[in-house]
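May I ask you for just one protein sequence along with its backbone structure tokens in two labelled lines?

_____
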Amino acid sequence: MLRAISRAVRRLTIAVVVVSVVAGVITCAVFMSGMRNKSPGVQRAVRRMNKAVVNPKMMESAGTPGVRAAVVHHTGRSTGADYHTPVVPELTDDGIVIALPYGTRADWVQNVMTAGRASLTHEGETFDLERPEIVPMSEVEDAWPESERSTHRAFRVEECMRLHRVSTGSGAGEGAGDPAVATAADDAVASVK
């Protein structure tokens, strides 16, 4: 009798493991397929999970020295509230690019596009950005290391946001057009790299 119970428990355990593995494989396949094919349902579910679980964890260290993730500071287009979203930017000569694996529907993307500006905290430094634009990845793919480009290809990330740093010499205020002021700003942003 005890042997029969032991066999039944063993079979049940094996069945639970097999079902769990199959469910995991199916979940991964649905996730990959949904992200690659831009399934609104899958993208919405992933965005919700990120907002609830991943983003709060990333915000614990994003923007600090030695951490790849940065924080984009933006204003809500409807509420006017200040928001802070973790992102993984690549620095360029005149600003940053951020891959958009969920396309342009993410709230932070719409907020930045509506405002026309944002700021970014990266490696402990904060700098202002302006003139956001959505550009094809093919235009800026060289900004990313090969390992990230292959991830972008695997998930069919086709768009990114490009933002330009605010030039201190472009305004009409004090120091406008002064090369020394522009150079100091350039040096400050370059130190973020």
Remarks:
- Residues 62-190 form a domain with the Pnp Oxidase; Chain A fold (CATH 2.30.110.10).
